[in-house]
Amino acid sequence: MRIRIVDAFTDRPFSGNPAGVLLLDAFPDDRWLQRVAAEVNLSETAFAHPLPPGGDADWALRWFTPATEVDMCGHATLATAHVLHTAGLATGTVRFAARCGVLVTTAAEDGTITMDFPTSTLTPVEAPEGLAEALGAEVVSVHDTAAHIGDLLVELPDESAVRDLAPDLAALAALSDRGVIVTAAAKDPARGHDFVSRGFFPNVGIDEDPVTGSAHTALAPFWSASLGRSELTGLQGGARTGVVRTALRGERTLLTGQAVTVIDGDLRA
């Protein structure tokens, strides 16, 4: 069985966010899918199989962390679309049927892929007790995204605070449903990004996710409102980084990035 490891939201290997991708004839037992994801041991492994023609979607798509199945994942969707296009199994637009609804991806001639995701609803909330201590940083504002992705979106004072963060992950796990996204405006937008972020998701078995597409469905409306522009570029990551271009379109957010296959091999299980 063929398995690929794809670095998403980057144009070069060993950067961005790696995802496992397996194209199947049908979904096997959930326990097998979870065991494969645990073996691959990346933030997400995507499993997809083709659907009959004439329906609302072209492929069925599921995502698993090493610990659990998740409702929405951006980078593994990008990785799956990249595999379909590079393998000659798709051109142009691909529609995926997922737990969060139908997700549409569109490949451009320059190699970028744009994903159409639901925009997260942001609700301003008071900072939970212990949040600043768990992060080890001053908190500027907090928004709840529970209706969509189940994260806390936490604004920090500046880019350096985001980059230097070394949070208490056990403490963070008790403060949100899925995880905590920290963000700040870019120190120097001339360097090619408008905001920075990092994502910590210990509740689903991911201490830090290098580049989280789904998080940008919350980051896009937050920074579009703050900066007064609907199209922005985000830089996410700590040791590994990747770039996500966002375009806010009301109830939908377009996420654009590149991907590169770094491993193409056989799964013998």
TrEMBL record:
Gene3D superfamilies per the UniProt record, alphabetical: Diaminopimelate Epimerase, Chain A, domain 1
A molecular function GO annotation: isomerase activity
GO annotations of cellular component type: cytoplasm
Keyword Isomerase: yes
Keyword Isomerase: yes
EC number: 5.1.-.-
Pfam families xref list: PhzC-PhzF
Catalytic residues (positions): E44
Keywords, in A-Z order: Isomerase
PANTHER family for this protein: PHENAZINE BIOSYNTHESIS PROTEIN (PTHR13774), PHENAZINE BIOSYNTHESIS-LIKE DOMAIN-CONTAINING PROTEIN (PTHR13774:SF17)
Sequence similarity: Belongs to the PhzF family.
Name of this chain's protein: Putative isomerase YddE
Native organism: Streptomyces rubrolavendulae
